[in-house]
Specification:
Oligomer: single chain
Number of helices: 3
Radius of gyration: 20 Å
Length: about 400
């Protein structure tokens, strides 16, 4: 099931983590989970090359990781991702500099017309947490790939598998690991895999859970098929809910909720639109609701009060306070995006890597280069002076953007 690894390799990994801990500036550039350190799509990277010569940044390596849309987690010198090859999911641990595998862990997961992995690994305290399309939750040792525990969440919760499979990337909240499975999530003890709490059986959708502190209270936001739900992450008790069902046969809520002060923003595709909700002690109240942002797949990034994201297939900037559109630019499809300082890092649906200025005034493109063929829905990741991009077929490319 997994490659064996020497004691020396494991000790090297531990030493590497220790060195990165000593040099805080380097550690701050890690990307240990879905949508980065703060789970908001923002990199802390600052000293990187955002304008390139005609050929683009140097390509360090390209590797086939298997079909899917999993993004990458980067911790020190290691990159973690997932893919599906011949009805097997593979969790990869790669050398960030060379693309060579330190280890891989495989398990059976049947492919269908929408084959491939969805969730992104979460790495914390020498452990890797993953979730398969069929709901298999795994905890692996980050240094060796040894399995620590596994749980099959549909059986544990009595909940069905969504049409395109589970896509929720695991969220670490204190001693818990939380998944968007069931009517309003499920939480396991992160060390043992023991069930801590679960919601009623129900249909999850495709967004990942997000937690924030609102008016001194910790709130976990989940976005299942029925709408937005706020729960107490410690015990799973529901605090409030907001129905967001509509005439959509696919029941797709794919973009993560975005907290902004005492409000939360959600958006869905299929012409559903977006809404900003004010959170209080009771049911959330609507600040505004419109169709200016319809996130089909990827979540917006928020910077200085402005949202940047794909409205269906058009890149837009919205004022989060009012929901009004500031500018739009066509040609991006349903690609992915992240943010570093005042720059947007975008991967178009057709594989162009684009750097643009994160400004509300107008669209300002700084650089563009073709990096992949095929369909690309996965967000590009900037970490430790490297940009990682992948396509649906499983090509993962690493680009050097150091000065």
């Amino acid at each position: 099931m997994r490659n064996s690894n020497s004691l020396l390799q494991y000790l090297s990994f531990v030493v590497c983590l220790s060195l990165f801990s000593l040099f805080g500036g380097v550690q701050a550039a890690d990307w240990p989970q879905w949508r980065g350190p703060a789970r908001n799509g923002i990199s802390k990277e600052s000293d990187w090359l955002s304008r390139w010569p005609g050929a683009g940044p140097k390509r360090l390596w390209t590797i086939e990781v298997g079909a899917g849309h999993s993004s990458v987690a980067v911790v020190g010198a290691r990159v973690y991702t997932m893919g599906n090859v011949k009805n097997q999911d593979i969790v990869w641990c790669l050398n960030a500099a060379t693309g060579k595998a330190f280890w891989k862990y495989a398990y059976r997961c049947k492919a269908d017309n929408y084959a491939g992995t969805r969730a992104t690994p979460t790495v914390q305290e020498n452990r890797v947490y993953t979730l398969s399309r069929e709901g298999l939750a795994l905890c692996l040792e980050a240094g060796t790939g040894r399995r620590i525990w596994q749980r099959l969440l549909p059986v544990l919760t009595g909940s069905p598998i969504p049409k395109w499979g589970f896509s929720s990337s695991p969220l670490i909240e204190g001693s818990l690991v939380i998944y968007n499975v069931g009517a309003a999530g499920v939480a396991l003890d992160k060390k043992t895999g023991k069930l801590v709490w679960k919601s009623a059986p129900g249909l999850a959708s495709y967004a990942s859970p997000v937690a924030s502190t609102v008016k001194g209270r910790r709130v976990l936001a989940l976005f299942p098929a029925s709408g937005l739900v706020g729960v107490n992450p410690a015990n799973g008790r529901q605090l409030w809910s907001f129905p967001w069902a509509w005439n959509n046969p696919y029941q797709v809520n794919a973009a993560d909720p975005i907290f902004w002060g005492d409000t939360v923003f959600i958006s869905s595709g299929y012409n559903r639109g977006c809404v900003l909700l004010k959170i209080g002690d009771g049911a959330p109240s609507i600040v505004y609701q419109n169709t200016n942002m319809r996130n089909h797949i990827n979540t917006c990034v928020l910077s200085n009060g402005f949202l940047y994201g794909c409205d269906q297939s058009t890149l837009k900037c919205l004022d989060i306070k009012t929901g009004s559109e500031r500018w739009q630019e066509s040609g991006f499809g349903r690609g992915g995006f992240s943010l570093a300082g005042d720059k947007l890092v975008l991967l178009t649906e057709r594989g162009d890597l684009v750097i643009a200025q994160a400004t509300s005034q107008r669209y300002v493109e700084l650089a563009r280069v073709k990096v992949l063929n095929g369909t690309c829905y996965t967000q590009p990741v900037l970490s430790n002076n490297r940009i990682f991009c992948r396509n649906r077929d499983g090509q993962l490319v690493c680009l050097d953007v150091s000065h």
